[in-house]
Amino acid sequence: MNLKESKFTDGSIVQRLREIESLPENVKNIEKVKSSILGSGFQYSVVWIVMAIVCFLAYVFLQKSIFLVIMLVLLVTPELFLGSTDSSTFSYVRDFAVPTLREVLPDTTVKYYSGIETPYLRAATPVTHMPVPFFHISFGDEVNTDFCNLRSTHEKIDMQGNRETKIDFEGQILMVKHPTGLNGYLRIIPTKQVMFGMELLNGHKEKQPYETKIETEDIRFNENHEVYCMDELSTRTLLNPHILNLLTRWVDIVPVGVYIDDETVVLSFHTKKFLFQIPESALEIEELSLADDYEELQEELSLMYEILGTMNT
Question: Membrane-crossing residues (predicted)?
């Protein structure tokens, strides 16, 4: 497979998305979605304030048992008062993202609350307790290209017993099914240089007893990556200078993790942001653009397809 053969990285796709977004009927629909998101945020704020006032008055003027019942009802069934908290999400996905992507890429399917299989997510990202994938795009092509956002976290308890949520990973995952000629699997971990020449694995799983650590002929690649594999010979055959150079070029952009087995390639991009995310601020709502997000996705897709196109299989 060659990068030039991938229709998903063609610049005409972004151009077509912009044309669709600028059509009068779509401008109207997009504005409707934006208004819905803004309205929902205002509605939730007002209702929560009212609920807080009700709880305060109940605490002051009613018996404690009645107050506890009211609190329980409000906490357990807030949707009775707020409506569905996912309405804006569904509006964005159903009325904007999904139909637009399907018009440009007819074989594409999009599911917001879905993602790439968990074992593959874990294989290419830092160790985590709670991986939460979302906005899953299946491109329906010959290599089964899959994309999703991923937010991974774990809880940490301090000396005082307070719980704190720590972010392990925020970014994008790409996966394809493609014969690689590899025996077993390999993991490429983006590292961080610290004092005295030591390297940090950025939360990724350390080398396992059954894995072999190898170094390549590319010095800069070695300075910024660790490679753990099951079979050294097939790994060295696969990781040719072209692939090493491609990954090294991304060192100054974002950390890229890699997992490859005999038929699967997974890339993780620790961008610390999400594509096609439901906007949360007024500025994000005004900048809502499927074309802009897809243009960023194309850069990540380009790396994946270039890697596939230079494999020694």
Answer: 42-61
Instruction: State whether residue 243 is helix, strand or coil.
Output: helix
Q: Are 283 and 25 in contact (CB under 8 A)?
A: no
Burial 112-137 (b: 16+ CB within 10 A, else e): beebbeeebbbbbbbebeebebbbbb
Residue 125 to residue 131: CA distance in whole angstroms: 10
Count other C-beta atoms under 10 Å from residue 71's C-beta: 15
If 0-12 CB within 10 Å is exposed, 13-18 middle and 19+ buried, where does residue 164 land? exposed
Q: Is 154 helix (H, G, I), strand (E, B) or coil?
A: strand
Residue type for position 197: G
In the numeric block, the tokens 């018009």 are attached to 103
Mention every residue, 6+ apart, whose C-beta is less than 8 A from residue 265: 175, 176, 178, 180, 258, 259, 304, 307, 308
Which single residue is written with the structure tokens 């999703």?
148
60 Cα distance to chain centroid: 46
Rg (CA), the chain: 23
Residues facing residue 156 across a β-bridge: 164
pLDDT tens, N- to C-terminus, the chain (313 residues)? 454 457 899 999 999 999 998 889 878 877 776 776 666 554 445 444 655 666 566 566 665 556 555 555 555 454 444 444 445 556 667 777 888 888 899 889 988 889 999 999 999 999 988 999 999 999 999 999 999 999 999 888 878 888 888 999 999 999 999 999 999 999 999 997 655 455 567 789 999 999 999 999 999 999 999 999 999 999 999 999 999 999 999 999 999 999 999 999 999 999 999 998 877 666 777 777 899 999 999 999 999 999 999 986 5
